[in-house]
Design brief:
Oligomer: single chain
Number of helices: 4
Number of strands: 2
Strand content: 5-15%
Largest sheet: 2 strands, parallel
Distance between the termini: 29 Å
Strand order of the largest sheet: 1-2
Radius of gyration: 15 Å
Order of helices and strands: EHEHHH
């Protein structure tokens, strides 16, 4: 299968739905279908929250970071909750940290233990 793999924390229930809604509002088309099925099958979606906590349950990305002993260097004291009042530099740093740490979490979760 040549589809992209969508990897995220709560990507299935939030990010992909949000992206789809923005595309519809703006009348934009991607040229491919987003994996919006309630229970998608296949290698094109990996949701770290669902994989760790299970369907219908929740775990914060920051809690996984603590569990995996990962250090977050985030200028926003309360994370995403502070974005509305933050400047663009701090928002970019916050988002970069989210992606960097999500990549580490994903790598840890899909790499078999030795």
């Amino acid at each position: 299968d040549s589809r992209a793999t969508w990897i995220g924390h709560n990507v299935q229930d939030f990010d992909l739905k949000f992206l789809w809604q923005r595309l519809v509002v703006q009348n934009l088309h991607l040229g491919f279908r987003l994996p919006l099925d309630r229970y998608p099958r296949g290698p094109w979606l990996y949701d770290t929250m669902k994989e760790w906590a299970g369907y219908g349950k929740y775990v914060k990305q920051t809690d996984l970071e603590l569990a995996f002993n990962l250090t977050r260097n985030d200028p926003l004291k309360n994370g995403g909750a502070d974005i509305a009042a933050a400047d663009i530099t701090d928002i970019c740093t916050h988002c970069s940290e989210d992606v960097r740490l999500l990549r580490e979490i994903h790598k840890r979760m899909v790499t078999p233990c030795a």
